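Listing S7. Sequence submitted for prediction.
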Amino acid sequence: MWPWSSRTVASELRRLAMRMRRPHAARLRLIRREIASMALVYSVTAAPSIDPDVVVRQLTVIVNGEASGAPADFPPEATSFGEIIVPQDAQVIVTLVDIDDAGNVSEPAVFEFTAADTIPPAKPGEFGVTLVRETA
């Protein structure tokens, strides 16, 4: 568990947002749902970083106001950031920042959404209709 409250994290993110440049917006795509616990799995992608001196891209996921683990670091050429798994109906905030060789941090690209199950059930399996009898 994080030693900071969600309010502290949110406040710090807002403060940092005022000082930083923004990388390209991140994109999320629902790719499957986990049936047992009704969790939803999303893939995270973003456009390539613009500046040549970017040395790391950092992804943060906040679910229902709490950080979902430590920020994840990715190489500067990363455009795919793997999958995130979140509970159905959770409020999710995903942020991406680029960090350059001098330690400067860009303004965060922020993607907020409610994890809604929009995947329809699979088509029912084969079924048939059989003539049983004739009536008058």
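Caption to Listing S7: primary sequence and predicted structure tokens for the chain studied. The longest strand covers residues 54-63. Helices lie at 6-19.
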